[in-house]
Amino acid sequence: MTKARARSEAKAKRQAFVAALTPAERSVATVLLAERVEAQLGDARIVAVYLPIGSEIDTLAIIDRLVRRKLAITLPHVTTRKGSLRFLRWAPGDSLPAGPMGLHQPATTAPEIVPDLILTPLLAFDTRLHRLGYGAGHYDRAFAGHPAARRIGLAWSVQQVDAIPNDSWDVPLHAVATEREYFSL
User: Fold this and answer.
1) pLDDT per residue rounded down to tens, the chain (185 residues)
2) Is the CB of residue 148 less than 8 Å from the CB of residue 142?
3) Pairing of β 175-177 and β 182-184
4) Residue 158's closest CA among 4, 25, 3?
5) HSE-up of residue 145 (Cα within 13 Å, Cβ side)
6) Model's pTM, two decimal places?
7) What is each CA distance from 66 to 58, 60, 78, 114, in whole angstroms?
């Protein structure tokens, strides 16, 4: 299967799954995800997280826990689909200008900081912890640029597939957290 076809199928499957959930089920799922992520923070002091787009699993409960622990938070910042991804410092209450591809991201004047934990969105993942992203390569380039950072994918459990087609530039994750499980090698 090609990556383009896998992306299309994964996105449709995720959208159908999320559309079938009640608001209460979504709320419980985000709390369960946040609990799993919090249990894996270890000695992280700077955490890159993202604000969800569309049917991505909600990260706001995770952000609340990061704030309570007084950890530094970064959000991804991109200028174009093919441009690089930078992690810019952000805190609740800071502005979130609209960016490309539906992103809400820190202002370009926010300081760039290096995360020691990167929580990443994805369309699908497999048991080898390969991640199928959106196809622009932003996160794979960011992972390569921050090799010491732990990489944890965030997903709905329905996003697990048997195998992800992968290329030489794809960087595997260290773990994946869902509302049901935590996967690591």
Assistant:
1) 788 899 999 999 999 999 999 999 999 999 999 999 999 999 999 999 999 999 999 999 999 999 999 999 999 999 877 778 999 999 999 999 988 888 899 999 999 999 999 999 999 999 999 999 987 789 999 999 999 999 999 999 999 999 998 888 889 999 999 999 999 98
2) no
3) antiparallel
4) 25
5) 14
6) 0.94
7) 14, 10, 23, 16
